[in-house]
Amino acid sequence: MFISTAEKQLDAKRRIVLPQDFRAAAAGPFDGVFCFPSIEADCLEGGGQALFETYRGLIEELPFGDPLRSALEVSVYGGLSRLAFDTAGRITLPETLCERFGLTDWVAVVGLGERFQIWSRDAFRAHRDRQLAAAREGLPAFRAQQRLARASAS
User: Fold this and answer.
1) Helix (H) / strand (E) containing 129
2) Is residue 15 exposed (0-12), middle (13-18) or buried (19+ Cβ within 10 Å)?
3) Of all helices (H) and strands (E), which one includes residue 120?
4) What does the alpha-carbon distance between residue 38 and residue 138 come to, in Å, rounded to a whole number?
């Protein structure tokens, strides 16, 4: 699993060292990670073979020609970059993606279970604050909904 958040500095060649536990979690058919523009936020999304298989399974559930399938194929398959680890455990982020998401200096690498995201550090800090507020608001409502469902089932 990809867990925790690490702030890393991009070097002049757009390379970052992924945390060791991220490199271990990404183990698969090649020594690296898959990365593509996130569908849910203005950042990069990445992971190992398990993430790729999750998206492939989701896409293959939809019939050929379905507009959602096409959108996912373009977004995931069409946006995908295979980023190999160098001998120091670094990956090199594509210039076009760095420009698109403002990844110029410091970045936040955020573990999200079977995937991770790479944000500009400042953009992530603002996103993290919004997500914390949403979690604080949503969790009590979710728990109340669970209690109601359990009461209805009895």
Assistant:
1) helix 121-153
2) middle
3) strand 116-120
4) 23
pLDDT digits (tens, 9 = 90+) for 30-67: 788 999 999 999 999 999 988 999 999 999 999 999 99
Confidence band for 153, pLDDT divided at 50, 70 and 90 = confident
Domains observed in the chain = 5-121 (3.40.1550.20)
Listed in sequence order, the residues at least 6 apart from 138 whose beta carbon sits closer than 8 Å to its beta carbon are none
> How far is the C-alpha of 116 from the C-alpha of 103, rounded, in Å?
15
- Number of Cβ within a 10 Å radius of residue 117: 25
Please state, in angstroms and rounded to a whole number, the distance separating the CA atoms of residues 60 and 73: 10
Write out the two tokens for 114.
């079977």
Tokens for 54, please give them: 């999750």
Count of alpha carbons within 13 Å of 103, Cβ hemisphere only?
Answer: 29
Confidence tier at 154 by pLDDT (50, 70, 90): confident
pLDDT in tens, 80-109: 999 999 988 899 999 999 999 999 999 999
What global pTM score does this model have? 0.88
